[in-house]
Design goal:
It is a single chain. With about 300 residues, the protein is of the alpha/beta class. The protein folds into 2 domains: about 40 residues; about 200 residues, TIM Barrel (Alpha-Beta Barrel), CATH 3.20.20. Helix content is about 40%, strand content about 20%. It is elongated and about 100 Å long. The N terminus is likely disordered.
């Protein structure tokens, strides 16, 4: 009986017991793209490319790098420096001046009288007078008077609008501006083609110059950009006129023709003028600048 109970207990224990399960580790899966962490794939990739292609690619990359440095970095670094007040001042010019308009608002003329550009006194001030046939700069009369009061050599310019009657523009300038002996010749500011043909533009400019020049008995000054002079006013008929060339952020003026003045920056700073101002140099001596001024009195014309 006892043996039977032992056998039954043994069978029950055997029936109720479960085999132990052992934990099995799943094999690690390889992550996609992990081969790129191994630099050998790149070496194998390059080894399959012909050597001449590698050399050619290296030359092209080197050329693009040099081009980027010379044409992009250096080209745009000067304008950015100018915006933050770092203006390269051209050397070798003792006669310097500024040009102003209503954009400069009010000018402290007593401070400007003591102002300097690259260690040189401000010798001349040219100001906007008229534009087209109806626009008169609201600061011109006061600026024009103050410039003479504080002994600056002064000048006045007209902003030309292509496609609008050159005769009417000339008459409007002459009716608003009265230059006197000691003033610079009248200035024509021509910067835009206005969509007219090159031949028509030249005709209009020539007409303005002749009307105004005949009135004052002297050749007006032509203000324009270096590229505009090259593309539109590069004929013999304009070469006899004194040119005032705008060419910014350069150590020297890259212009081979004769020029009177060079506007080298539009981001200059000088005492007496709040904010940025256009700065210029005269291609000559102070006596030479005086020699270009008007010598005969001319009275304004009422059209």
């Amino acid at each position: 009986m006892l043996c039977r109970c032992i056998r039954m207990t043994s069978r029950k224990a055997t029936y109720n017991s479960k085999p132990k399960q052992t934990a099995t580790r799943r094999p690690k899966q390889r992550r996609r793209g992990s081969s790129f962490k191994n630099p050998n794939w790149f070496v194998r990739f390059l080894s399959r490319i012909p050597a001449w292609i590698l050399w050619l690619g290296g030359i092209v990359v080197g050329f693009l790098y040099v081009f980027f440095i010379l044409q992009v970095v250096l080209h745009f670094s000067l304008p950015w420096k100018a915006k933050y007040g770092i203006v390269p001042e051209p050397d070798g010019y003792e006669v310097r001046g500024i040009d102003i308009s209503h954009y400069q608002r009010s000018v402290n003329w007593s401070k400007l009288q003591d102002g300097e550009l690259a260690g040189n006194k401000v010798s001349f001030v040219i100001m906007k007078a008229t534009e087209g046939t109806t626009i008169f700069d609201k600061t011109f009369n006061d600026n024009f008077y103050q410039a003479r009061k504080y002994s600056f050599i002064r000048g006045a310019y007209h902003f030309f609008i292509p496609g609008t009657s050159a005769k009417k523009q000339a008459e409007y300038f002459l009716s608003q501006v009265h230059l006197v002996p000691g003033d610079l010749p009248p200035v024509l500011d021509i910067e835009k083609s206005g969509g007219v043909s090159v031949a028509e533009l030249r005709k209009e400019v020539r007409e303005w110059l002749e009307i105004v020049g005949n009135h004052y008995g002297t050749k007006p000054i032509i203000y324009t950009y270096y590229s505009f002079k090259r593309d539109f006013l590069n004929t013999e008929e304009f070469n006899d006129y004194p040119f005032w060339i705008a060419h910014y952020y350069k150590d020297k003026l890259e212009y081979n023709g004769n020029w009177m003045m060079w506007q080298y920056t539009d981001c200059g700073r000088v005492d007496g003028v709040d904010g940025r101002v256009d700065c210029n140099v005269f291609n000559g001596t102070y006596e030479g600048l005086q020699g270009m001024c008007i010598t005969k009195e001319q009275y304004p014309i009422d059209f």
